[in-house]
Design goal:
This protein is of the alpha/beta class. The protein is 32% helix and 20% strand. Bound molecules: flavin mononucleotide and iron/sulfur cluster (2 copies).
Length: 247
């Protein structure tokens, strides 16, 4: 079974490609957070790196008492990222080991367009397509390795142990919903509220309002809004919206 979390489609694309090549089923992590997970043969987890660590949804998944894993099961982690993987693999491993006593047998990463548009500019469609084409080659390599049963840590572009210390505070600050606001171009369609993975948005008087102090800060609401009406401070307007072409 392949589990994934994805806001703009990168990790979902990886999960789907692995599923097709390895004849596995795919399930969003959000659908199993309150169910039991029995792993007899293989579990692959695919998620995006956030702040050198893991998205809050993945932290919850890795820490939940829902796993029943057989002794011989193969556990594989695949992290998507834009520029560096920080300490994401070691943080995920720490949470999972504390919860289940198990570590991942194989860990991989795939470099993809960086959807953190408060910093990165994704308006150059050619550059974005090139990055996605290179990512597909990386995914081909991962599929080959998984098929022949290669184990070990193959995560690239790490930022060292200090990111393990920096990640919690960095993510907490950056994920304050006070960073998000809606512009007058909003047409009140409600898609942002409907699709928020942590139910942090409510529609009031035809406009989204953020009801929690912090959210996962996946930027799904910003990138998927049909009017590009949601912005993060004054940092995102010129950097475009992004969705993986297969999403
Ligand atoms: C809140 C947040 C923090 C992120 N932090 C990092 C980071 O520290 N390093 C990095 O390389 N990419 C970072 N990214 C980029 C994503 O990891 C990358 O674009 C990922 O492929 C998005 O996956 P998705 O399309 O499945 O949501 C961040 C994205 C978000 C939304
Ligand atoms: S998705 Fe965009 S247009 Fe639709 S309600 Fe949300 S902010 Fe408004
Ligand atoms: S409010 Fe927006 S950025 Fe925050 S978790 Fe929901 S969809 Fe993601």
């Amino acid at each position: 079974m392949i589990y994934y979390f994805s806001a703009t489609g990168n990790s979902k694309h990886v999960a789907n490609r692995l599923a097709e090549a390895l004849n596995e089923s795919v399930t969003p992590v959000l659908e199993v957070l309150n169910l039991g997970i029995k792993v007899d043969d293989r579990m692959i987890l695919v998620y995006p790196n956030y702040c050198g660590g893991v998205p809050s949804v993945i932290r919850e998944f890795l820490q939940k008492n829902i796993f029943q894993i057989s002794k011989d099961a193969k556990l594989i982690l695949v992290i998507t990222y834009g520029n560096n993987t920080g300490a994401s693999s070691s943080i995920a491993t720490k949470y999972f080991k504390k919860n289940t006593g198990r570590t991942f047998d194989a860990m991989y990463s795939v470099k993809m367009p960086d959807n953190w548009t408060p910093v990165f500019d994704l308006t150059n469609a050619e550059e974005v397509a090139e990055t996605n084409a290179k990512a597909d080659e990386e995914i081909d390599g991962i599929i080959r390795k998984i098929k022949i049963g290669v184990d070990g840590d193959h995560v690239g572009d790490k930022l060292g142990k200090f990111m393990e210390v920096v990640y919690p505070g960095f993510y907490k600050t950056l994920s304050k919903t006070s960073h998000l606001h809606v512009e007058d171009t909003c047409i009140g369609c409600g898609l942002c509220a409907k699709n928020c993975p942590v139910n942090a948005i409510e529609m009031k008087d035809g406009k989204p309002t953020w009801t929690k102090k912090n959210c996962a800060m996946c930027l799904g609401c910003l990138h998927r809004c049909p009017k590009f009406a949601i912005q993060y401070d004054d940092k995102t307007k010129d950097h475009g919206q992004y969705l993986h072409p297969d999403s």
